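Progress report, Aim 2. The chain analyzed during this reporting quarter is listed below.
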Amino acid sequence: MSDDKNLAKESEKQEDPGVGPVDAAEEQQEPSAEEVIAELNDKILRAAAELENLRKRHQKDIENARKYGSEGILGSLVPVRDSLDLAMQSSEKEMPDSLKEGLEATLKLFDSCLENFGVESINPKGRIFDPNLHEAMVMQVDDSKEEGTIIEVIQKGFKLHDRVLRAARVIVSKKS
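Predicted structure tokens for the chain:
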């Protein structure tokens, strides 16, 4: 009879899979409510941080667009400014006073307009050479000046806020 009882117990176990000992692996597969909540909180915090980073990046892009959006057109006006400066220098002696005054006024107005848009000239005569702002055209021996000092500016440079539109072209001193 004991065999019959054992057989009955085994058949009950096979018929009802929900009854009986639970595997340790099955318990580990289903996370507890606390684990689910912690995971969801982590996802929410990450999404919020990603959204904040996106907002900051977008704000920076808008600021850069405002600050440097006119870089192309202002850069193309630099040669026009150079031409006015050359006209002033080359024909200063031959020019009638009224024309000279008109050209000076035009040059001042042009410079004022560039300044209003954040453009400033780079005129580094007497300063130390900086490859980020200056382009060395010639190295010239000059023992009276410290090596790397800008002796002469061949062509002024221009910056838009903190970006270089055109580097100043310069002659730099060197020791003999």
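The beta strands are 119-122, 134-141, 150-155, 157-160, 163-166, 168-174. Residues 85 and 107 are 7 Å apart (CA to CA). These observations will guide the mutagenesis work planned for the next reporting period.
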